[in-house]
Structures are given as structure tokens and as C-alpha cells.
From TrEMBL:
<keyword id="KW-0804">Transcription</keyword>
<dbReference type="InterPro" id="IPR036388">
    <property type="entry name" value="WH-like_DNA-bd_sf"/>
</dbReference>
<keyword id="KW-0805">Transcription regulation</keyword>
<dbReference type="InterPro" id="IPR056433">
    <property type="entry name" value="DmsR-like_N"/>
</dbReference>
<feature type="domain" description="DmsR-like N-terminal">
    <location>
        <begin position="17"/>
        <end position="154"/>
    </location>
</feature>
<dbReference type="InterPro" id="IPR007050">
    <property type="entry name" value="HTH_bacterioopsin"/>
</dbReference>
<dbReference type="Pfam" id="PF24277">
    <property type="entry name" value="DmsR_N"/>
</dbReference>
<protein>
    <submittedName>
        <fullName>DNA binding protein</fullName>
    </submittedName>
</protein>
<feature type="domain" description="HTH bat-type">
    <location>
        <begin position="173"/>
        <end position="224"/>
    </location>
</feature>
<dbReference type="Pfam" id="PF04967">
    <property type="entry name" value="HTH_10"/>
</dbReference>
Length: 231
């Protein structure tokens, strides 16, 4: 017998999980902001851009104007406004070539935040699922020397409509463990059926299969410790 209240809607749309990912893109080569960051003390922030005709304009904020002015191998920046503790600059360059941010945008993925530090471009993306993240990483592989997922926050909707978010911090992994995971992933070790077996991946890494298995197990355990930890 009803109580007069509004009945529950069992057919309500599910709350999307989605992911928030932080990508560190190493070795982009053709980004003047990233190049300028190698001479800058601390991160260059507020990186954004626009296209007008054949011109690509990048704007950014820097706390050390002298470092930006003396950066080598980049066009002379234009100072737009002095904000006291930092200054806003712009670079104008031809709209050609393949830059990392443009590749991400061409995948219909807005960039939530972009900054550069020590020659590394760091992007924050909000994506519908992990498959989309894989698409982004794969597309960037042809432009960058290394694409690193620094952190991943995944939201999975529970039956009550609440979100169960998991933070995965790859900073817990050693460089070697990251390399093992990355190589195994790229070679299709985690595919079903597998595109490469343990021996194939070990040979690519120039290590023994037993050493590969040890690194892989340790890396997976670290990530699972965070993913499956009780709150």
C-alpha cells in the first residue's frame, strides 16, 4: 500500500563515472611554452591558445619574466600584462605542425588545464571512460617521446546514485616499474588474446622473463593497493 510519497524511479539515468586524468607529455619538441619552461623556476601556468586564420597564438603566465625572455630556441614572446607577482605573455606562430594540445582537441576532448614545467607539458583532462583515455595516449605517442599518466581519478556510480571515486597515483611506481607496465601495455600483453607474451616483453626490455614478472607483479600490487583500499 502506498504512503502518498513519490515512487522511486527505478529507470532513472545512471550517473556517469568518467575519469579525471593528469598527463605528463615529455619531448614535445615543437611547443615554445614547453621550451621556455626549461629556463623558468617553477611551472608556467594558465596556458591557453586560439587560432585565427593561419596564426596560432599561445598565452601563458610566468612568475620569472627574465627566464622567459632569455629562453633559447623559441620566438620572442609578447608581454601582454604585468599582474605584479606574474606576467602574461603570448607567442604567435604559424598554425602548422602537430602539437600535443591540438591532437587532443582533434579527438573532441577539451583540455581542463595546461601548464609546463622543466620541459614537460602537463594536461588535465575530463573524459567519459578509460577507453577514451587510451585513445588520447595512443594519439600522443606519435608526437611525444613519452606520455605518462601521473594520476587518475575514476568515478563509478553506485546503485544509490552516489559516486565511488578512486585515485590512482602512479608516482608510487619506480621508473623501472613504470617502464615495464608501459611496455607491456603497448605490446598488447594485457589484451585477450595477448599480442605479446612475457618473453616478448622481457626481450623488448632487455631483461629476463623472471625479472619482468617480478617488476610487473610489484607494480600491479602497488596500484591495486590504492584501487582496492578500504576507505
Amino acid at each position: 500500500m502506498g504512503t502518498g510519497g513519490k515512487p522511486a524511479d527505478d529507470g532513472a539515468a545512471a550517473v556517469p563515472g568518467g575519469v579525471r586524468a593528469g598527463l605528463a607529455i615529455h619531448g614535445t619538441g615543437n611547443c615554445p611554452v614547453v621550451t621556455a619552461s626549461t629556463a623558468h623556476d617553477g611551472p608556467i601556468t594558465g596556458v591557453n591558445w586560439t587560432h585565427a586564420g593561419d596564426t596560432h597564438t599561445e598565452e601563458f603566465r610566468a612568475r620569472d619574466p627574465d627566464a622567459v625572455d632569455r629562453a633559447e630556441g623559441v620566438p620572442a614572446p609578447t608581454s601582454v600584462v604585468d599582474l605584479g607577482d606574474e606576467r602574461v605573455y603570448r607567442y604567435d606562430r604559424p598554425r602548422n605542425g602537430r602539437c600535443a594540445c591540438r591532437i587532443v582537441e582533434e579527438l573532441d576532448c577539451p583540455i581542463a588545464d595546461a601548464r609546463a614545467e622543466d620541459g614537460v607539458l602537463v594536461l588535465t583532462l575530463h573524459l567519459p571512460d578509460l577507453d577514451r583515455l587510451r585513445d588520447v595516449v595512443s594519439a600522443l605517442d606519435g608526437t611525444a617521446e613519452l606520455v605518462e599518466v601521473r594520476y587518475l581519478v575514476q568515478g563509478a556510480a553506485r546503485g544509490d546514485g552516489a559516486s565511488d571515486r578512486t585515485l590512482v597515483d602512479r608516482g608510487r611506481l619506480t621508473d623501472r616499474q613504470s617502464e615495464v607496465l608501459r611496455t607491456a601495455y603497448r605490446m598488447g600483453y594485457f589484451e585477450r588474446p595477448r599480442d605479446a607474451n612475457a618473453r616478448d616483453v622481457a626481450e623488448a626490455l632487455d631483461i629476463s622473463p623472471s625479472t619482468f614478472a617480478e617488476h610487473l607483479a610489484t607494480a600491479q600490487r602497488k596500484l591495486l593497493d590504492e584501487t582496492l583500499a578500504e576507505n
